[in-house]
TrEMBL record:
SMART domains: HATPase_c, HisKA. Its EC number is 2.7.13.3. This is histidine kinase. It is an enzyme of class 2 (transferase). The lineage of its organism: Bacteria, Bacillati, Bacillota, Clostridia, Eubacteriales. It comes from Candidatus Gemmiger excrementipullorum.
Amino acid sequence: MTPAVWLLCAAGLAALGAGGWALWRARRTVRRLDRMLAAAIDGGFVEELYDETALSALEGRMARLLQGSAAANRALAQEQAAVKTLISDISHQARTPMANVLLYAALLEETGLTDAQRARLAPLRAQAEKLHFLLENLIRASRLETGLLQLAPAPGPVAPLLRQAAGQAQAAARAKGVALTAAPCDAEACFDAKWTPEALYNLVDNAVKYTPPGGRVTVEAALTESFCRIDVADTGPGIPEAEQAAIFARFARGAAARDTEGLGIGLYLARQIAAGQGGFLRVRSAPGQGSVFSLYLPRQAVQSYQTVTLPKAP
């Protein structure tokens, strides 16, 4: 083989080697960038040192971007925690004064008030009761969010849950002319006996509240492979699909509910209670076709159920 051929071969091998080296570095950089992004998504990104080659410069810029994003996320989480703490503190501090306002309003009603004075006292008491209800629910929500309130799911029959929720809302349903029925069932599930009835009652109360006179609300249960699904169906105005993802947020209310008395916290609290024991909530609805809110309860005890936190939009 002549020297010229040797030189050509050597040059070709060198080019192949350089190309292979560049390809290996590119693949390594892609893998490292992928790990960096995965760590950032999981919240565990830590910046590392890189050399000053072109590919590592790209890694460095990506690292600085992710580091800034991680810092912003930490700051946002701290601000959210501070707001939750503030709401919880205000709710606790206002709880006793509001209870005293209701007490004195009740005492005033027992005195010899004129009709005009009673007419002025009635809206005062109604607004005080509304504010008291809001404070109590904010306290419940803050206890669930911070983990101060631990749910204790245990196996039990579902039928008493349905009867209790329907019984609590029956007076309001009759007064409004809404037919409220709870279907019989023999299903069992695993749920917290104290807080699950409250979550279900919130769903039934909402259904009665938003169903027009002459409508109907039905509460029934069905079994799936892993869950017991409790459906609360109404013949109300329905909820547009664009609003369904947001109605479970705190203080969220749909456009059709603006003229109906409410605080926008019942669904939020119900979702928190469901999530705290391994369950969840779903809604099926369309304008003019009513709504079906479904509370899913595990059929068996969940070994490690989700800690209750502020839910993300589904």
